[in-house]
Amino acid sequence: MERLNDAQARALLLKKPVLLLPIGAVEAHGDHLPAGTDNYLARRLAATLVERIAGATPVMLLPLLPFGQVWSLSDAPGSFSISNETVSRTVSEIGLSMLEKGLSSLAVINAHYGNVTALREAQRQLKDKGVTVAIFNYPGAAEPTKTVRERPAAHPSYMHACEIETSYMLHLAPELVRMDEAIVNYPDFPADFGEVAYRWSEFSASPVLGDATAATGEKGRIILDAVINRMAELVADLYSRQSGSRSIGETSP
After folding, report:
1. pTM attached to this predicted model
2. Which domain holds residue 138?
3. Residue 215 · residue 178 · CB < 8 Å
């Protein structure tokens, strides 16, 4: 969208594209990955998705939202957070803006799990306004991850700067990865971690959760190929389901 002039934007809007919104965060990822890891992943996943779709489904790629909710690692030097309310309100207002242009389908490509609560709230608010929002948190990744994983996850519900996420970066942004600084870190999670809120610094000296040294670009490629294929399917489904929205330039009956 950033590169389109008015005439180009109007022509694309008449096709009632599915809007793609990448969102990440500025968050510490250890010494082997940059604080903008989630931003690079979201942006490059979105760009790869557009290439994979290759005109089969009309889409409009919006600019990256570069900040997210980072509570668990907010005290780390590489983390800068905004509130859930700010994330949710921003996405909701983007949705209302697209609705004014006769569009009704939005796919959020989210590379930071800390954003999920806020995105769910925006998703529900926008549904009541007539906008369908799909939240893509690496859909389709589960099975190929089981296939390529060599080291156990540090926690059943969390992965961060580990074998898997580092493999994503080695595939999508290898120039930013310092594998010579990769570490193995399996912290002792508090027994009540699932019930009580903890900042990760309370039980771990590093934001790495797992074995980053086991990462490879090939693992990242295998997983993310499946993710891109699944996202392309979901975007096509979003486009086929939308109906009754009014394109810019059209008038109501």
Report:
1. 0.93
2. 8-241
3. no
